[in-house]
Amino acid sequence: MMSVSLLLSHRVKAGLSVTEASPNLPLWLLAELTYACPLQCAYCSNPIDYSTSRQHELSTEEWIRVMTQAREQGAVQIGFSGGEPLVRQDLEILVSEAKRLGYYSNLITSAVGMDNKRIARLKEAGLDHIQVSFQGADRELNDYYAANKSFDHKVAMAKEIKRLGFPMVLNFVLHRHNIDQIEDILELSLTLGADYVELANCQYYGWALKNRDHLLPSRAQLCRAESIVKRFRKEQAGNMELYFIVPDYYESRPKACCNGWGTTFLTITPDGLALPCQGARVIPDVDFPSVREHSLQWIWQDSPLFNRFRGNAWMKEPCRSCPEKEKDLGGCRCQAMMLTGDAANADPVCDLSPHHHRVLEAIERAQIGNGDIANSQIINNKNKEQPLLFRNPKNAKQLKS
User: Do 199 and 183 touch, CB atoms closer than 8 A?
Assistant: First the structure.
């Protein structure tokens, strides 16, 4: 598997700056094929208002045109995601076309809608990599937070993926109610023969932002989990690669947004909008270019959106004079927008930001009443007051209104 970090390493060796304002190559294409999904994860990063996108999804031919143009622009890796990309009945056609074009292809899936025959068809079509997501280490917690009885099916599909020779890649989104399962999560990964495990602490966009007060773990939970991961990583050195992604809210410095706005990543939404990152739709008063109206060459190189936060000329203080601005590039523009109302502000995660108090307040608010409640207690109380807002059309409609 050629990872994003390896691609970036290759890019630096080739002498291509990842921070300069002039456009570089879009190395990674994220094809969000659909927002339809059988799961209802309360931390989903999809837009809250996703209900109408199904009517305007790109056709097979349109996706092939996008893939072709992105490859011509330099993209070498493609991720098929959603929603749930298995909902698309033309997935095998798109995978086959990605193979013909020379992409390294990734399927990012819940495995719901998959069976042995479809895995075999995807293998035959040339798919390189499948990442299966779990919501917990056991049936009870996984099925509750997915709002779908899917745990046993996920396990069966993971075993079949491994049997067919794909890299065994698992993803667990960690939050307050499953992070204390970290040891069981790692044991499950070991049982399934995982080669790579992404332990992605929830980042607060989309539905996750709406549920932040109920999902954000305590610092103590985070420290315990990180300690267990470090021990497990040492024990499994050479056998399993573990990636532990800390939630931004507990960092003192932000991460460079998608390796820098408009430098590496290109996201295409189900209805054909081109974005520098998955969350960019939260930025208001922006004309999001559509692949139905513009070429990807124009979108990547010339569109106002992709040039808006390239480089550092756009920065305000304290970012403009910060010695670390070439490292973090001011952090996440979407997070700045959501927490301060201005996408050009310093990411509030940074403790040098004048808005850092908003992150501290969010942490404090989330910890009110956050005791070490057993997972079974949470689930047993689900029919009482339901604190989580699950991702489904009904809740989307209510939030929109």
Answer: no
Tokens of 61: 């031919």
Say how far residue 124 (Cα) sits from the centre of its chain: 27
| Cα(2)–Cα(232) distance, integer angstroms | 24
In tens, the pLDDT along 167-223 reads: 999 999 999 999 999 999 999 999 999 999 999 999 999 999 999 999 999 999 999
> Is there a contact between 351 and 324 (Cβ–Cβ < 8 Å)?
no
Q: How confident is the model at residue 387 (pLDDT cuts 50, 70, 90)?
A: confident
The half-sphere exposure of 85 on its side-chain side, counting CA atoms within 13 A, is 28
Using CB atoms within 10 Å of the CB of residue 350, give its burial: 0 to 12 exposed, 13 to 18 middle, 19+ buried.
Answer: buried
Q: Are 155 and 197 in contact (CB under 8 A)?
A: no
Cα–Cα distance, 331 to 344 (Å, whole number): 10
Least confident of 18-22, 29-33, 84-88: 18-22
Compute the mean pLDDT over every residue in the chain, rounded to the nearest whole number: 89
Q: Could you tell me which residue, 387 or 142, shows the higher pLDDT?
A: 142
- Percent share of the chain, pLDDT over 90: 78
